[in-house]
Amino acid sequence: MENNTEIQQYKHSMEEYLRMDRMPHIWCSSCGLGIIVTSFIKGALQAGVDINKLVVVSGIGCTGRVAGYVRLDSYHTTHGRAIPFAAGLKLANRDLTVVVISGDGDLLAIGGNHLIHAARRNVDINVICVNNFIYGMTGGQNAPTTPLGAYSSTAPYGNYEQPFNLVGLAAAAGASYAARWTALHLKRLTDSFAEMITKKGFCFTEVISPCSTVFARKNKGGTGLDLLMEYKSRAVIDHEANPQTIPLGMDNEIVCGVFVNEDRPTFWENVQNGIERKVKRTRLYEDIKIR
Ligand code: SF4
After folding, report:
1. Is the CB of 62 under 6 A from ligand 1?
2. Which helix (H) or strand (E) holds 187?
């Protein structure tokens, strides 16, 4: 009770867009998630989207909690299903701006198939994937993004599985927009969110974020801030980089930038084109019959 009273004395700069009745949040101190939520809100405001038509969808895990903390229309869905849920929302109400914010475990393991097919179809949604290289909430198991050699609770001798290169995967599957930043690239991250949110088609941004409690501890990475500084020191910005050639590891460069920014027909545009084609063909058929 005392704590709550103390917290209520301070006004958070994003208070208007957060559910303050849910504070204090459950995230660990120096986790990157707070920075990413702030960047997302700033990006949305910068893009000038109608906040009343902005919807956030999250899956399960630490990042999945975002849906519960933002004061927007938001949905906390089941494990791995944030993308199909978001796709359904967008197709049902195309005036909405729909943003999935979820973690690497949720989006790339159980939800992996949904991600590649939404990208292939170019469904008009935005996906922010917070990559902390591990399953944080459930005890530090290997994720599909855990770097080779990294320790986790299911890889006590070091991970021997090749991780996914998320931007390469999204680009290969057909995403209209694919970017990667670390949580310390605050301004660029905000700009990227603003850019993708107003772009048509399937847009994907990966944010490398420190998991101070689990990944840092298992890999002797120090505090969340130490980990964040390490990521920043390894970061190189190269917008021209081929996303297929920039996988992440334990100590190689973290190539950041906007690698894909293209326009191609969205899923809904293809549906409309298909209906028009069908109508034209039917008319042609009717003409032939009449003659
Ligand atoms: S477990 Fe890791 S990812 Fe989850 S809140 Fe803590 S620091 Fe963040």
Report:
1. yes
2. helix 186-197
